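wait is this the right file?? whatever heres the structure
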C-alpha cells in the first residue's frame, strides 16, 4: 500500500505520510470508541450507561526487549496515579517492577511465585490491583509456557484481595467486562507501534 506524491514515487510504511495515515486511522477508530462510550456501549451482552466514564489516549511505544509480556514504555510509572495508590497487587507481573508482583514464572523474579487463581492473602489486603494476563490460550502456551488462566476465577481472586474503594486495572486488547462487585470508571487506550493493535486498560472500582 502506498501514496503517490509529486515526485511520482510511492511512499511505503516507513514514510511520515504513511505513518500519519495509520495514526489518523487509529485516532478515527478511537474517536468512534469514545463516541460509543459517551452514549451507551454493549459489553458482553451487558448494557451499561457510560456517560461519565473517563477515557484517555496514550502513545507509549513498546520498549526494546525480548520479553514478550512487557508493558508499553513508561506505563508503569503512571500506575500509582491510575490506581490512586502505591499499595497494589500486580497479577501476571512478568518483568514489571512495581506493586506486589505475583507471577508463575520464577525467572521473572516476582515477589511471589504463585498461581493467581489462589493467593495466600486475606480479604481486602491491597489498596488496588493491576493485571496483564495472556490475551489468548495460544499466547499462554507458546509465549509463557503456562496454562491459559480462567477468567472467572482469577478476576474473582483479584477483586477479593483488593479493599473496597480500591481501583483495579486490567490490560487487554479489548474493553473487558465489568467485574462482579465493581463499577466501571475509566478506559485508557494505548497506541504502541505502527501496524500493531492498541492495548486497552479497563479501570474499575471495587464497591
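ok assuming it is, sequence goes like this
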Amino acid at each position: 500500500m502506498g501514496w503517490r506524491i509529486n515526485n511520482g514515487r510511492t511512499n511505503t510504511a516507513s514514510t511520515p505520510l504513511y505513518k500519519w495515515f495509520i495514526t489518523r486511522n487509529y485516532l478515527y477508530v478511537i474517536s468512534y470508541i469514545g463516541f460509543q462510550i459517551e452514549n451507551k456501549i454493549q459489553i458482553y451482552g451487558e448494557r451499561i450507561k457510560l456517560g461519565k466514564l473517563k477515557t484517555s489516549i496514550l502513545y507509549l511505544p513498546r520498549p526494546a526487549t525480548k520479553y514478550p509480556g512487557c508493558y508499553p514504555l513508561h506505563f508503569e510509572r503512571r500506575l500509582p496515579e491510575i490506581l490512586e495508590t502505591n499499595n497494589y497487587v500486580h497479577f501476571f507481573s512478568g518483568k514489571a517492577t512495581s506493586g506486589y508482583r505475583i507471577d508463575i514464572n520464577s525467572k521473572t523474579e516476582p515477589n511471589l511465585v504463585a498461581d493467581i487463581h489462589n493467593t495466600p492473602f486475606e480479604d481486602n489486603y491491597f489498596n488496588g490491583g493491576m493485571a496483564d494476563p495472556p490475551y489468548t490460550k495460544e499466547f499462554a502456551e507458546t509465549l509463557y509456557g503456562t496454562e491459559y488462566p480462567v477468567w472467572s476465577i482469577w478476576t474473582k481472586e483479584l477483586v477479593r484481595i483488593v479493599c473496597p474503594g480500591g481501583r483495579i486495572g486490567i490490560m487487554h486488547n479489548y474493553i473487558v467486562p465489568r467485574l462482579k462487585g465493581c463499577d466501571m470508571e475509566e478506559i485508557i487506550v494505548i497506541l504502541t507501534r505502527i501496524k500493531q493493535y492498541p492495548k486497552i486498560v479497563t479501570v474499575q472500582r471495587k464497591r
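Residues 1-50 have pLDDT under 50 and may be disordered. so i think its the right one actually
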